[in-house]
Automatic annotation (TrEMBL):
The keyword Oxidoreductase applies. Keywords: Oxidoreductase, Thiamine pyrophosphate. Residues 6-181 form the Transketolase-like pyrimidine-binding domain. SUPFAM superfamilies: Thiamin diphosphate-binding fold (THDP-binding), TK C-terminal domain-like. GO terms for molecular function: oxidoreductase activity. Its cofactor is thiamine diphosphate. Its EC number is 1.2.4.-. It comes from the Bacteria. It holds the Pfam family Transketolase_C. This is Alpha-ketoacid dehydrogenase subunit beta. PANTHER family: PYRUVATE DEHYDROGENASE E1 COMPONENT BETA SUBUNIT, PYRUVATE DEHYDROGENASE E1 COMPONENT SUBUNIT BETA.
């Protein structure tokens, strides 16, 4: 059956399975991805079906994982590496930004590194320190990296396929608190472009732009606003780098107001770049300043306080009210 309702984590599992089955050069690597099947069970059953030489349990050494993947990519493989939690990526940051991102340019286009770095990210699961970070802007700032984040199971399935097939390195941020959200997945569909934003709810009064875990929150905000007679458009950006500014512009030219929402801190976040670009592009269309809603410029708090830190319904609705008040 081509279409099936499945959780986002299951969709990723099925996508990885399809990639392993269709291309012997695809490898899956990471801490506990094999026998355990990953801490979120995204790689469950893959080592059993494809063997320890294709689904590889690595030592606890993120720089070694990414460094080994770079070497494998140089030999023609397509490694998919898992960073077990968002906050664990920083030991590998040097490898990612100085080697993985730069090799194509350094070799004048002769060398390609088709590596996918999977990173479960964001909060909302009551985790301990270093398990709820949102570092996407750190990677989006680096030329040579593609940075994407699906918000639903269907996108998770197809965006993973496209990331693995890309000849450029892709940082694939998986919204961990949405792993268990289910949606219809058509495994025989023709997917749209990897870096194309998508309007997931039409509206006329204001645009909410988000990606990853915040798309569901924005849809809930749009439902709440509709009860007050307000029509909000929700735009799923899907990709942080490159970013589909044309789709954002088209939406804003229609609604004339924009609120950008992400879990990462607002300070120097991706929303700042979107706000600046859209202000440049849509200056004569905007009827209010572009507003941003996100995390605070502070370390991610202990689990009992994370609901105060994360952007939620009330905080986003407050920004909507302020934008509509102009």
């Amino acid at each position: 059956m081509a279409a099936e309702k499945m959780a986002l984590a299951k969709a990723l599992n099925e996508s990885l399975r399809r990639a392993l089955d269709s291309d012997p050069k695809v490898l899956v690597m990471g801490e506990d991805v094999g026998k355990l099947g990953g801490v979120f069970r995204v790689t469950d059953g893959l080592q059993k079906d494809f063997g320890e030489s294709r689904v590889i349990d690595t030592p606890l050494a993120e720089s070694g994982i990414v460094g080994t993947a770079i070497g494998l990519a140089l030999r023609g493989y397509r490694p998919v590496v898992e960073i077990q939690f968002d906050g664990f990526v920083f030991p590998a940051y040097d490898q990612i930004v100085t080697q993985l991102a730069k090799m194509h340019a350094r070799s004048l286009g002769k060398v390609k590194l088709p590596v996918v770095v999977r990173i479960p990210y964001g909060g909302g699961i009551g985790a301990v320190e270093h398990h709820s970070e949102s570092p996407e802007s750190l990677f989006a700032h680096v030329a040579g990296l593609k940075v994407v984040s699906p918000s639903n199971a269907s996108d998770a399935y197809w965006m993973m396929q496209q990331a693995i097939q890309s000849d450029d390195p892709v940082i694939f941020f998986e919204p961990k608190r949405r792993y268990w959200d289910k949606a219809e997945v058509n495994t025989e569909a023709i997917p749209g472009p990897l870096h194309k934003a998508r309007v997931v709810r039409e509206g006329t009064d204001l645009t909410l732009a988000a990606y990853g875990p915040m798309v569901k929150t924005c849809l809930e905000v749009a439902d709440a606003a509709a009860e007050e007679g307000r029509s909000l458009e929700v735009l799923d950006l899907r990709s942080v780098s490159p970013l589909d500014f044309d789709s954002v512009q088209a939406s804003v030219e229609k609604t004339r107001r924009l609120v950008v929402v992400h879990e990462a801190p607002v300070f120097f976040g991706s929303g700042a770049e979107i706000a600046a670009r859209i202000t440049e592009r849509c200056f004569y269309h905007l009827e209010a300043p572009v507003l941003r809603v996100g995390g605070y410029h502070a370390p991610y708090p202990p689990a009992r306080l994370e609901e105060e830190y994360l952007p939620g319904l009330d905080r986003v609705l407050d920004a909507v009210d302020r934008a509509l008040a102009y």
